[in-house]
């Protein structure tokens, strides 16, 4: 009887350790650099517009860099593929490492407008760290005016 109790307690403690380890692994996040360049084409108003698509994995922050000439205004949308329940957080950083666009709510579609006062690479952060299991497919549509 005593061996049965010891065996049962060992199984319970072992199961608890495995569950705790799996939960701990879920807390980890990663940062991934995304690559892709939109093919900019001039439209009828003179703006250069293009699109690029990415996948941002669950529990991760995707970083994408886009070069903006000085004096150009960058406008566009970030749209998550799928139904309206899928959402993403968006932050845009200037080449001097300052936040110039921050959308506090995670949404299915986020519109942005950034005036390029400094030429250089602007960093887009696509935040999917809140999603435990769902990868997100994003489409970034932007125009330079």
Describe the fold and architecture:
- The protein is an alpha+beta fold.
- The protein has one domain: Sandwich (Jelly Rolls), CATH 2.60.120.380.
- The chain is 18% helix and 49% strand.
- It contains one helix and ten strands; from the N terminus they run αββββββββββ.
- It has one helix at residues 2-27; strands spanning 30-33, 41-42, 48-56, 60-68, 73-80, 88-93, 99-107, 109-115, 120-127, 136-144.
- Strands 1-4-9-6-7 form a five-stranded mixed β-sheet, with no helix packed on it.
- A hairpin with a 5-residue loop joins β6 (88-93) and β7.
- The longest helix is centred in the first third of the chain and has 26 residues, at 2-27.
- It is elongated, with a radius of gyration of 22 Å.
- 15% of the residues are buried.
- The model has no long low-confidence stretch (mean pLDDT 90).
């Amino acid at each position: 009887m005593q061996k049965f109790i010891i065996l049962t307690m060992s199984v319970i403690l072992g199961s608890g350790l495995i569950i705790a380890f799996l939960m701990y692994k879920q807390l980890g996040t990663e940062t991934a650099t995304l690559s892709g360049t939109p093919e900019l084409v001039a439209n009828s108003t003179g703006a250069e517009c293009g699109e690029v698509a990415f996948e941002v994995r669950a529990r991760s922050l995707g970083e994408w860099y886009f070069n903006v000439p000085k004096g150009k205004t960058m406008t566009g949308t970030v749209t998550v593929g799928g139904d309206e329940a899928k959402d993403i957080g968006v932050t845009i950083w200037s080449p001097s490492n300052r936040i110039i666009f921050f959308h506090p709510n995670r949404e299915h579609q986020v519109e942005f407008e950034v005036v390029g006062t400094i030429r250089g690479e602007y960093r887009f952060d696509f935040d999917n760290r809140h999603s435990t299991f769902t990868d997100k497919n994003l489409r970034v549509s932007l125009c330079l005016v």
